[in-house]
Amino acid sequence: MQQVRQRPEAILWENSKLEDYNVTEEGVTLQIVKEGQLIQISAKMIIAADGARSVFRKNIFRRPIDRKQMAAVIRTYYKDVKPSGKCNMFELYIFENVMPGYFWIFPMADGTYNVGLGITSDVIQSKRINLRKLMDELIIHHPLLKDRFGNATRVHPIGGAELPFLTESEPKLSDKRILLAGDAGSLADPVSGEGIGPGIVSGKYAALTAVQALKANDFSASFLQKYDVTIHDKITRAYAIRISLFDWFTKYPWRINTLIRLYPKIRWIRNLLANMIFTSFRFSDIKSLMIFKKLFKNNV
Ligand SMILES: Cc1cc2nc3c(=O)[nH]c(=O)nc-3n(C[C@H](O)[C@H](O)[C@H](O)COP(=O)(O)OP(=O)(O)OC[C@H]3O[C@@H](n4cnc5c(N)ncnc54)[C@H](O)[C@@H]3O)c2cc1C
Questions:
Q1: Residue 167: how many CB atoms within 10 A of its CB?
Q2: Which residues contact 108 (CB under 8 A, 6 or more apart)?
Q3: What are phi and psi of 40, to 5 degrees?
Q4: Which of 110-124, 159-173, 208-222, 256-270 has the lowest mean pLDDT?
Q5: CATH architecture of 67-164
Q6: Residue 144 CA to ligand 1 centre (angstroms)
Q7: 190 lines ligand 1 (CB under 6 A)
Q8: What is the pLDDT of residues 15-72, one digit of tens each?
Q9: 66, 195, 231, 242: most buried by Cβ count inside 10 Å?
Q10: Residue 3 buriedness (CB in 10 A; 0-12 / 13-18 / 19+)
Q11: Residue 7 — φ and ψ, nearest 5°?
């Protein structure tokens, strides 16, 4: 925000809420409540980056949010967590009662630990899971965690939010005069839950598409559809491969358990697991058999 404030070409409004919008032949009108006052502004087009509860998304997706494509995520910070070993690494736990989802411990530069938990919303609803209670139970009772958190203190309140993601590889992210970026387009990685990277990447391509639309003075749905194609290619097609692999391994706990047991012993399994999580795949990788090269490349 500090950086945005310093840019002369940007106008930053804080304490302002978009209430509604309307797309017309001439442009887009936005109704915004700014410091208590209702204001109407017009634009040629919009890059909607208004997060998980986007006002714009529902009209573009044209369907209600599917709970299978939404995760509830909580996060807090602890100090004095006992380190797991010699090196302070990002730890990811796939517990049976946290599936489909995971618990994480993420060491921060200031010595505290970012600790959190996320599960898809359909499972939370059907199993009536209370995420905060589940996190406390894991930290207090789980054999892998209780000693680690024995002397730890929570130094931050637990924060929670929804994280939308997509399981289809070719989502509709644009319409006449509108482009969806980041969480507004449900672009978080459906396996790792990381949304900052896809947010930045989609923001960049949305900006490039907007420049082209302004130059061509064409804000039609058909012109802006090129944004969808770019995002499919750069982001969402790769997700399809990762979802299939992740689903196959996590369908039955024995599969993931076998994988983890063999992990320290067999190098190609270590590489497979690390690449499944951290490598970005392209759809064309499947055709060129590059997928195998990427899956088994030396990573650990
Ligand atoms: C607990 C938790 C932990 C996470 N950890 C990670 C992580 O470690 N790494 C990672 O990559 N991702 C993580 N994510 C996901 C990541 O935070 C999001 O994917 C990312 O922030 C999306 O960025 P965004 O700009 O699209 O949306 P947001 O960050 O949600 O920004 C949207 C902005 O729009 C504003 N807004 C919304 N509606 C309106 C309106 N009507 N009027 C005016 N303003 C509005 C909001 O106030 C907000 O400022 C985590 C998510 C959660 C919930």
A1: 15
A2: 77, 114
A3: -115, 125
A4: 256-270
A5: 2-Layer Sandwich (3.30)
A6: 31
A7: no
A8: 999 999 999 999 999 999 998 999 999 999 999 999 999 999 988 887 777 888 899 9
A9: 231
A10: exposed
A11: -80, 120
Amino acid at residue number 157? P
Among 38, 186, 196, which is best to mutate for testing ligand 1, by the most ligand atoms less than 8 A from CB? 196
Each residue's pLDDT tens digit, 8-29 = 999 999 999 999 999 999 999 9
pLDDT of residue 168: 76
E-strand stretches of 141-233? 153-154, 159-164, 174-175, 178-180
pLDDT tens-digit series, residues 156-184: 999 999 999 987 777 899 999 999 999 99
Distance between Cα 91 and ligand 1 center (Å): 22
With a CB cutoff of 8 Å and minimum separation 6, the contacts of 300 are 267, 270, 271, 274
Nearest atom in ligand 1 to 159's CA: 1
Specify the 3-state DSSP secondary structure of 228. Answer: helix
Q: Are 146 and 152 in contact (CB under 8 A)?
A: no
Q: How far apart are the first and last CA of the chain?
A: 36
Number of H helices, E strands in the chain: 11, 12
Q: Which amino acid belongs to residue 123? A: V
Tokens at 117, concatenated? 């938990």
Structure tokens at 17: 């809420």
Question: Minimal CA–CA distance to 114: which of 87, 79, 149, 151?
Answer: 79
* Residue 220 token pair: 């039609």
Q: Please name which of 286, 185, 163 lies closest in space to residue 232, comparing C-alpha atoms.
A: 185
Break the chain into its structural domains and give their ranges.
Answer: 1-43, 67-164, 252-296
CB 147 within 8 A of CB 82: yes
Q: Which atom of ligand 1 sits closest to the CA of residue 160?
A: 1
DSSP, collapsed to helix, strand or coil, labels residue 251 as coil
Q: How far apart are CA 200 and CA 182, in angstroms?
A: 7
Q: Which two tokens stand for residue 110?
A: 């200031």
